[in-house]
Design a protein that fits this description.
The protein is built from 14 helices and no strands. The protein is an all-alpha fold. The longest helix is centred in the first third of the chain and has 23 residues.
Length: about 280
Amino acid sequence: MPLNEPGTKTLNNLAEQARTGDKSALEALIRASQDSLYTLALRFLANPDDARDATQEILTILVTRLSTFEGRSAFRTWAYRIAVNYLLRSRKIQSRTLTLSFKAFEEDLHAGLVENPAPAADDVAMLGELRIACTMAMLLCLDVEHRIAFVLGEILELGHREAADVLEIAPATYRKRLSRARTEVIAFSGRVCGLANPTAQCTCPRRLPEALRLGRLNRSRPLTNGAEDGDYADVLARTRDMERDLATLCLQKSPARFSSPGDLAATVRSIVTEQKLH
């Protein structure tokens, strides 16, 4: 049961059982958490390798601090708070976090567009990869405070009060950050992205050859591996029937969750065991 699905009581019960030394409950808790935490890290960092490392670190912190979870809030709120604190404050993450500007990103997207694209048969799947990579890169144009607010509210769909609790800020402050982030993402997508705006210059088919040439996509390690709603044609059909603002948010929410690369439970368990031995 992932963190971003209903089941507060179940997750809290697993956490309580894990606190008392139940190893099977601990592994179940890690497996229930890893995909949502990986999605959070990937959307924030836009790099699968960095996101995997961050998720492993976050899960290790979560396990080692589980004794401090008292059930005063939902387990997922507590877990997301640990994750957000790590992503925003870890020196290791700060040294890796990329930032873009909307202006520079727009110039990059418009460079090398093909006039009459004709993707090869084996490139069709890459259109979905490009769409997802582009929407994630778009979030790098937001500063970290507005980026994390957008991911919590629009991608993971936490309510304003819970997201504010995760960030340890006032709900009114969170609403302002989310509103500003949404406004900037919608404005950019509505001007630049051909999926949100059929008259825009940049479309995935026109951009794909240049993205492949520059190595922006990795055929052997697809982002959509295990992800929901990764099909380009399906997303294109859905967005065509929406108003521009809704189309933009649809693009950002699809896929809603990524699967973490491998089962991290055993890895985290070995790390924690090794830490205890030292």
